[in-house]
Amino acid sequence: MPIPVNHPQRFQLTNEVHARPYANIYVPARASHLAILLTPEQKEDDRAALNALCERYLIPPPAADTDHFNGEFGAFQLRWEQHSEFATYTFYTEGNCSDPFAETALRSVPDAWLKSLPGQLIVAIHAGMMCCKYKGKAETRQPVNLDVISPMFEGNTLIGSGVAGGDASAFTDFRIHADGFSRFLVIDHNFHSSRQAGRLLHRLFEIEVYRMMALLAFPVARKMLPELNIRDKRLVDITTLMSKGDEKDPTRCSAALLDELTELATEVENSLSSSHFRLGAAQAYIELVNKRIEDLREVRTPGLQTFREFMDRRLAPAMNTCRSVNLRQKSLSKRIAQAGQLLRTRVDVELGRQNQSLLESMDKRAQLQLRLQETVEGLSVAAITYYSVSLVGYLAKAGKEAGLPIKPDLVMGIAIPVIAGVLIFGVRLIRKKVKGAHAKIDEG
């Protein structure tokens, strides 16, 4: 067909929605799920470990740019996914599941390879999927015997419900057992396909993984609470001192408070930067937990807490603490910024007042200096006139001795006003030129 040229990413974007297919699981089956925290440097080691397992079983490894993989390894099936902070390995085996936690899916995986995995284990789960003896519609189905299920969880309090709209039941105790693994049990009442079984089990695993990833923020939030209380009190003390002020030296007091406020702002911003990712990620993870629980389509089992009720009772308070700490930090940062702005305004106003007082003092000094200068100018004119008239007198006496008809005293008397007038005119002319030069500088 004569159609336009394809966009370079058309096929990649189309296939993205099919990128992580659920496993085909035929009940009865067992599964083991591992979630491993990875640093950015360990991600390549994690991929290398997966490639080594594929090479061991002569299976083509995943492409270098993919972050998911499904493969058949003979005795087990593997599903691998790499996320931003962690990687997950899910191992499946099919067959008899009368005691799902006695012989686990992980037993089929080489021990040496498991020990070679990089990172830190955050979630480890064994799951069993069993067929119900009484299949069919919910109306005619026999209820699940909890007395049979409870010993599989060592008598711990069970959490569970009907899931997938009643096509199955899922149970757990959300505890880590003596073998270091949590446990999930799924009972098939009326699965319609192997994909439905794989989808349900994957959602249960994701609920536990995302729950643990969200809870990573809780110790961070608890550690920050005392520091937040201390910093909040410091801000209250600073604002109290701002309202009182220092009548003797308000500028110095405000400058000292501004320095203290700047130091407090630095501490809060540093705390925000170091905890922002973890607290923000917790909110994203808890939203995923809620979405996966919603996707379970729970139906209450009499006598048991549902997954939703358990999360609302046990997880929600911890997440509320994380959310509260995050909001308090942001609120404290904003309050510090507002206080800093007010304090800087006060400092500017006080400095303006001081500058005004300084200019007034300088103006008074300039006027005093001008008066003194005028006084000195008058004395200078008198002194110069005196010496100039004396010189004229000596000249007149010399002329009289030379025979000229000159009266020295008369000449000196006439010279006094003439010389004084010339000096006064000259001083005023110089002063006028200086003022004109200053006026041009001020205009410029």
Give an overview of the whole structure:
By secondary structure, the protein is of the alpha+beta class. It has 2 domains: 21-193, no CATH class; 217-357. It has helices at residues 10-16, 42-56, 111-115, 146-149, 194-215, 217-244, 250-296, 307-401, 408-443, and strands at 29-37, 68-72, 77-82, 86-94, 120-131, 159-163, 168-172, 182-188. The chain has an 8-stranded mixed β-sheet with strand order 2-3-4-1-5-8-7-6, with helices on both faces. Helix 8 (307-401) runs antiparallel to helix 9 (408-443). The two termini are 78 Å apart. The model has no long low-confidence stretch (mean pLDDT 85).
- Major β-sheet profile: 8 strands, mixed
Mean pLDDT: 85
Terminus-to-terminus distance: 78 Å
Q: Tell me what portion of residues adopts beta-strand conformation.
A: 5-15%
Poorly predicted parts: none
- What best-fitting shape do the alpha-carbon axes yield? rod-shaped
Strand order of the largest sheet: 2-3-4-1-5-8-7-6
Number of strands: 8
What's the helical proportion of residues? Answer: 55-70%
Instruction: From the alpha carbons, calculate the radius of gyration and give it in angstroms.
Output: 46 Å
What would you call the structural class? alpha+beta
List the total number of helices: 9
What number of domains? Answer: 2
Structure, briefly:
The chain has 444 residues and is α+β, with helices and mostly antiparallel strands. It is 58% helix and 13% strand.
Helix and strand layout, with pairings?
Elements lengths: L9 H7 L12 E9 L4 H15 L11 E5 L4 E6 L3 E9 L16 H5 L4 E12 L14 H4 L9 E5 L4 E5 L9 E7 L5 H22 L1 H28 L5 H47 L10 H95 L6 H36 L1
Parallel strand pairs: 5-8
Antiparallel strand pairs: 1-4, 1-5, 2-3, 3-4, 6-7, 7-8
